[in-house]
Amino acid sequence: MTSLQCVNCNVRLFRMRRHALFDESADLINTIRLWTYPRDITPTDHICHACWQLASYSSSSENMPTRQVGHHSICVVCGRSILRISHRRILIEGANEEQQRVANVVSSWIQPRQLCSEDEACVPCWLRARRTAVTIPVEDIQPPAPDYVDDDHSALMCVVCGRSLSSTTSDEEWNPENIFRLLELQQTSSMNEVCGVCWAQAQDLSLRVTEGQQERLQQIVLPNIRRAADTARHCVFQECTEAERNLVPEETRREVLIRYQYFIPRGARICSLHREEANYENLYTAEYSLNNFTSAHIEDIIFILTTSLSQYNVFVYRLKSKIVFFRK
User: Fold this and answer.
1) Between 95 and which of 99, 177, 199, 214 could a Cys-Cys bridge form, CB atoms 3.0 to 4.6 Å apart?
2) pTM (predicted TM-score)
């Protein structure tokens, strides 16, 4: 395990209050040792403050302490929260060969900790393990590079241009259309990140936007409909790191809009994995979903709905015709 994580609940301890385990009392250490068995406790192990509080209470109790964790829904690899993002279970009952190899890769990454049936991983870590399982023999697998698990930016993408925040990009690669994407993000969560190139180009934003472009930027906020980013630089599931992406099919755009009140702009992309899983119900509540729409978005929504209504009317007409025919 290359990042500093709680030995008990596995949460990533970067910028979190933590306790060096060997600085604590013998009773507390024994409690943690019992909770993490069969993993051995080492002098470098730490626990988060939440687990420290639970262990302190349990060690002072006369009853046999049962295992408790201070944080739930934590990626077993990187230690980040997976409560509100897509994740994958690692140990699967009746797993096929590929799933078993992925589990072996993750198991080698988190040593000396052992995998358990409840362990889950975030999608970026799971995809990384999946690629490693395909390309590298299990005996040659190395733990993830420290810059992958320790760098806050390594698993994040710029919400404007879609590039990894750990990559470097020259000013010549700036796309002027990203100005409009940046303005769209005024309504988004503060959790979104922007790369240095996009941020620098946005500093003089008022000088770059002409009067004609201002008309394009006029938007309306819809309280009950949300949408995906109007970009082809990443999957509509923005936590996805798959490089291969395809256009979102028209029938998928129509179904997601009608069933989940979530609009996917024309030209948006989706990877084969998320298209197969079809967990579109998660998009509406995702932190990167948007609720501001341009006139082009509104026109596209109306077109999708009117097309669906026309198809429905044709279906009803044909159905009525068949009913009349059978009555005769």
Assistant:
1) 99
2) 0.43
Q: How many helices (H) and strands (E) does the chain have?
A: 12, 10
Report the relative pairing of strands 262-263 and 226-227 from DSSP bridges.
parallel
**Residue pLDDT, tens place only, 18-72:** 899 888 888 889 899 888 888 888 888 999 998 998 888 887 666 656 778 888 8
| Helix 123-135 vs helix 97-109: crossing angle, to nearest 10 | 110
- CB-based burial of residue 276 (10 Å sphere; 0-12 exposed, 13-18 middle, 19+ buried)? exposed
Give dist(CA 10, CA 278) in Å, integer.
29
Alpha carbons 127 and 235: distance in angstroms, whole number: 14
Q: Are 179 and 186 in contact (CB under 8 A)?
A: no
What's the Cα-to-Cα distance from 304 to each of 178, 184, 219, 315, rounded to whole Å?
26, 22, 19, 17
Can you read off the two tokens belonging to residue 273? Answer: 């994995």
Residues 111-134: b if buried by 16+ CB within 10 A, e if exposed: eebeeeeebbbbbbbbbbbbebbe
| CA distance to 50, 188, 267, per residue, from 300 (Å) | 49, 22, 12
* Better pLDDT: 84 or 283: 283
The three-class DSSP label of residue 188 is coil
Q: Is the pLDDT of residue 156 over 70?
A: no
Ranges of beta strands (E only) in the chain are 18-20, 46-48, 87-89, 120-122, 219-221, 226-227, 246-247, 262-263, 269-270, 292-294
Is residue 166 very low, low, confident or very high in pLDDT (cuts 50, 70, 90)?
very low
How many of the other CB atoms lie within 10 Å of CB of 149? 24
Say if strands 292-294 and 219-221 run parallel, antiparallel, or are unpaired: antiparallel
Q: How far apart are CA 287 and CA 193, in angstroms?
A: 12
What are the residue boundaries of the structural domains of the chain, listed by start?
1-72, 80-155, 171-303
Quote the distance between the C-alpha of residue 13 and its chain's center: 20
